[in-house]
Amino acid sequence: MRRPLIAGNWKMNTTVEEAVSLVSAIVGGLKAGGAVDTVLCPPFISLYRVSEILRGTPVKLGAQNMYFKEKGAFTGEISPLMLKSICQYVILGHSERRQHFGETDQLVNEKVKAALAAGIIPILCVGETLEENEAGKTREILTRQVSQGLKGITAGVEVVIAYEPIWAIGTGRAAGGAQAGQTIGLIRGVAAGVLGQEAASATRILYGGSVTAANIAEFISESQIDGALVGGASLKADDFTGIVKQTASLKAMP
């Protein structure tokens, strides 16, 4: 069975002081160990301080983005070498990066390969817009994003995929559990074409998009969904820990 994973993407929110307070509250609200892998992804300026608080706890640290070069004249960018000593995960290809900063499938693929080379687990984000969804292009868009994002990746490495329908991110309009489960089944099939069936079956695929403590059970109950990439609700300690605890209960490992 795939071990469930809940990741919190804080996006461009929290000062360093607020991040320290939030992560302390989240860690305090979670039991040691547990049946769920938990990852927190604060802004870059808070990564080191948060890493100190997470040291010795089961909660892992993730970055929200990363460039694919190790170093060089890339003003404002963060490299794998800068992250590898403190981060276990990195979010790559988030729709906001694609939409606002022009990231392409090819660039995202370079980042995925760079993360793996540095020993960081990439969380590869994919998802279609409302217009693409309503035009019946979901399969086409996701097939392209997944196959291009995983291009050149071999079986045996760990990659997490997060399906985030763009029309559901921050809108309060989450996809239904059955719909999300079916779409994630499609994504797993595309991944099998790149990584092989065995590797794809072991790959954790998350749902993201207006996930809350009130609706997480609807998604986690679907066999294809292995967890969630949580946005707004991850900024509230009680909501986020509630999501983790419900996931642990519904996806209890034998």
Task: Please describe the structure with a list of short key phrases separated by commas or semicolons.
254 residues; alpha/beta; TIM Barrel; eight-stranded parallel barrel
Description of the structure:
There is one protein chain. By secondary structure, this protein is an alpha/beta fold. It has one domain: Alpha-Beta Barrel (TIM Barrel), CATH 3.20.20. It starts with a strand and ends with a helix. It has 11 helices and 8 strands. Strands 1-2-3-4-5-6-7-8 form an 8-stranded parallel β-barrel, surrounded by 5 helices. The model has no long low-confidence stretch (mean pLDDT 94). Helix 5 runs parallel beside helix 7. Strand 2, helix 2 and strand 3 form a beta-alpha-beta unit.
> Which percent range fits the helix content?
40-55%
Radius of gyration: 17 Å
**What is the count of DSSP helices, taking H or I runs of 4+ residues?**
11
Topology as a string of helices (H) and strands (E): EHEHEHEHHEHHEHHEHEH
What number of domains?
1
The termini sit apart by: 9 Å
> How many β-strand stretches?
8
